[in-house]
Amino acid sequence: MQKRLFFLMVTLLTVSLTALAQVTTSGINGKVTLGTANGEVAIGATVQAVHQPSGTRYGAVTNVEGRYSIQGMRTGGPYTVTVSYIGSQTKTFEGISLSLGENYNLQVWLEDDAQQLGEITITGQAGLAASRNGAAETINGSRIAELPSLTHSVADVARINPFVRVSESGAMSIAGSNNRYNAIQIDGAMANDVFGLTSNGANGGQAGTQAFSMETIEQL
């Protein structure tokens, strides 16, 4: 019985760490109401977010509870979020920045608009609103720049998390697991030693070099 419980705990830990390692996006969610924050819910309101540096657009439509959720968004910003609804004044929010793996909560209430309205077509995108579970930490660019580093490696930054242990060779052990189970990704692309040839589990480990510099990383 004890062996079965131990196997179950190891399996759950492995699944959690694998899911956590694959987080590469952010999201925005919230509720849209009319008049005040506690007013009538706006069913079918259009929410559009634009990533200003790239021009990438994301959209959603509020449900019967006036709630919306946009997932799979690029990390960082700034974003411009526009909320529109028939018979109400359009509201725009500027300079929104998203953290890696986090859902930015944006509550919106709209004022009445007495102007004559023409035909309006509302479009939306269906999908599963996934959320991140488990222990995690986001380190932004300012924090990365402040941390002292001799090798300019991801291990020098990750070691500030209490779950991360870094050996003398630069190998990172997360929550006690072997460093060969680590998944280092840059915008979803693998950047670690996928063949298991190095002792520290990172590209460039055999040559004692770094595959990328932390100065090029916006968030970790």
Tertiary shape? elongated
The CATH architecture of the largest domain can be given as Sandwich
- The SSE order reads HEEEEEEEEHHEEEE
Report the average pLDDT across residues. 78
Summed up, the domain count is: 2
Major sheet summary line: 4 strands, mixed
Strand content: 25-35%
Q: Which consecutive residue ranges, at least 5 long each, have pLDDT under 50? A: 15-20
| Tally of helical segments | 3
**What is the percent of helical residues?**
10-25%
| Strand-pairing-aware structural class | alpha+beta
Protein described:
Helices cover 14% and strands 28% of the residues. It is α+β, with helices and mostly antiparallel strands and 220 residues long. The protein has two domains: 26-110, Immunoglobulin-like; 137-216, no CATH class. The strands form four sheets. Strands 1, 4, 7 and 8 form a four-stranded mixed beta sheet that branches. The chain has a four-stranded antiparallel beta sheet with strand order 3-2-5-6, with no helix packed on it. Strands 9-10 form a two-stranded antiparallel sheet. A hairpin with a 4-residue loop joins strand 2 (46-51) and strand 3 (56-61). The two termini are 39 Å apart. 19% of the residues are buried. Mean pLDDT is 78; it is low at 15-20.
